[in-house]
Amino acid sequence: MEWKLLEDDSEKKQQKGKRNQQASTxxxxxxxxITGKLKCLKKIWNDxxxxxxxxxxxxxxxxxxxxxxxxxxxxxxxxxxxxDLDSTLVFSTREKRFEEQCFxxxxxYYVAIRPYCRTLLETIRPFCNIVIYSAGGRKYxxxxxxxxxxxxxxxxxxxxxxxxxxxxxxYIKDLRKTExxxxxxxxxxxxxxxFPFQPYNGIVIKPWIGDPKDEEILRILKLIMHLKxx
Length: 230
Fold this sequence. Notes:
Blueprint: H1 2-54, H2 72-77, E1 79-83, E2 90-93, E3 102-104, E4 109-113, H3 117-124, E5 128-133, H4 138-148, E6 157-159, E7 165-167, E8 170-172, E9 185-189, E10 202-204, H5 216-229
Parallel strand pairs: 1-5, 1-9, 5-6, 9-10
Antiparallel strand pairs: 2-4, 3-4, 7-8
C-alpha cells in the first residue's frame, strides 16, 4: 500500500511538471506572438507618422496664386512657425481681469500680450516664416495682429476662422492651408486637438491667462532654436 501511494504521488508530480512545462511553453509562444505584433504595429505607426507629417496628402483644387520662383527656394529652406493667438500669444476677455490688459475699442475686448512675445518674434524672424493661424473671427484676428505687429514686419501670413473647419462644435486647423512645406512647418498652440491632421508637427504651449511672470515663451524659443539647427 505504501509503495502504491508513493507511485501515485510520483505520477502526480510528473503530470504537474508536464502541465507547468506546457503552460511555460504556451506563455513563451504567446509573448513571442505579442512581441511580433507590437513590432509590426510600431512599424505601421512609424510609417503612418512619416506619411502624415512629411508628405502633402493632396493638392488644393482651387487655383493657386502665382509663386515667385526667385524666392521659393529661400522660403522653403526656412522653418515655418505657425502660432495660435488666444492663450498662446495673447489673453483677451470681455471684462478687464488685470492691469496689463488694454481695451481695444474696435473689437470690444481687453487684451494683454504674453511676456516675451515680442522677444520671440524678433529673435526668430531672420530665419523663420511666421504665420498666425487662429480660430477667431477675421476682424478680431486682424486687430490683434495689428497690436502685435503694427509695423508689419513679423507675420508672413494670417489665417482666421475662415480657414478652419467646424467639427463637433470645435474649429480645427489644417497646416496645408498655410501652403508651406509640412516637413519644415511647426505649429504652436495651447490645444493639441486644434491640428488633428498634423498632430506630430506641433509643440503644445502652456495656456496663458495673465501671469506676469510667465516664461513659457522662452521655453518655446529654445525649442525653435534647436529645430533651426536640424
